[in-house]
Amino acid sequence: MPTRDQVYTALGSVIDPELHKDIVTLGMVRNVEIHANGVIDVTVALTTAGCPIRDHFQNGVNSAIRAIDGVTGVNLTFDVLSDQEKQALRGKLGRATLPEGALAEVAHVICVGSGKGGVGKSSVTANLAAALSRAGKSVGVMDADVWGYSQPRMFGLSGGRAHANAARKIEPLVGPEGIKVVSIGFFVEEEAAVVWRGPMLHKALQQFLEDVEWGRLDYLLIDLPPGTGDVSMTLAQLLPQAKFIIVTTPQAVAQTVARRSAEMATKLELEICGVIENMSGFTNPEGVSYPIFGEGGGRLLAEDLDVPLLAQVPLTLALREQSDGGLPVVFSAPEDAAAVALTSAAKRLIAMDTAVLPMASVAAPAKPVGMSLPMA
Ligand SMILES: Nc1ncnc2c1ncn2[C@@H]1O[C@H](COP(=O)(O)OP(=O)(O)OP(=O)(O)O)[C@@H](O)[C@H]1O
Ligand SMILES: [Mg+2]
Fold this sequence. Notes:
Layout: H1 4-11, E1 15-16, E2 21-22, E3 29-34, E4 39-46, H2 54-66, E5 73-80, H3 83-93, E6 106-113, H4 121-134, E7 139-143, H5 151-154, E8 163-164, E9 170-171, E10 173-174, E11 180-183, H6 198-210, E12 217-223, H7 230-238, E13 243-248, H8 252-267, E14 271-283, E15 289-290, H9 297-305, E16 309-315, H10 317-325, H11 329-332, H12 337-352
Helix pairs in contact: 4-12, 6-7, 8-9
């Protein structure tokens, strides 16, 4: 009959490919039971329930134990490490976070969406990113608008190409003041129509999250396409911890549409962290304000959802021009009224976020990039 020592020695040859140590050393072997008929029961505790490298452990444990003389079968069950055990593991590994997924080092994920197109999601995303960065935060921007991507232009990165690094991970492009940007625009020719839907789209977004070397970020902002379709669904599935900012314009119609996306966020159980009203009047260079798109929509929606109205962003020429200038107005003209409003929104976001690293994230494999995205 096999001995416990033999079983533990065998298990000591199973290496966790992410943590680069064997599962016995890592304290991941929970339970070993040896039956008289030569069947061995083993429980291995993984770092996350949806561990994508489960198969690796399955195969590793099975073949290691079956190689022991007298073993007739293996019953392997998986469990998840408790928070306490993870803490101990972190201590053992001497690092602050566990590589639980590609976003394991991203503290906050915020999706910027709206039901309707053209309300300023992309401009708001880029400028919030800039304002968070100015506030000393490390920031990434993921352009999830695969059909009408605009972040490359917003950050002066048009024509840029994404490359994989030595670890076979996609490197984000680095925009002004170190903001990391990933967009489908870095994978396809300019103006190329991306017609992906369904599985192809899902795969591309998944790669943006899992195969991109985002590194340690305080904030990852996600610029959503207009509407409440495929992309939002996919992201909500992949990022259950993401929060949602809804951009709306002051008039009632836009607000109705924005409410629809709010309903979706609620349905998908993403937390809505606030509303940003954009195009809240035009302030002329003399400082006189004209409410060209009406008034009050943002406040109404925020009250309706019982979330804060994070900012009312006026229409300004500077913000309009920055779209082509490749430098968010928060960087290029921080005194501009739109920049000021978005800077204060960023400060409110920071004040709201008291959470600390790390947070549970996408259960992402450290697998090589199985390029479904065309790479330069
Ligand atoms: N506060 C503002 N002041 C001046 N121009 C603005 C403002 N907000 C947005 N714009 C302009 O409005 C246009 C649409 O903005 P943007 O691309 O950010 O909207 P969007 O909601 O992302 O659009 P889409 O739904 O197409 O993705 C852009 O030309 C942008 O420069
Ligand atoms: Mg946009």
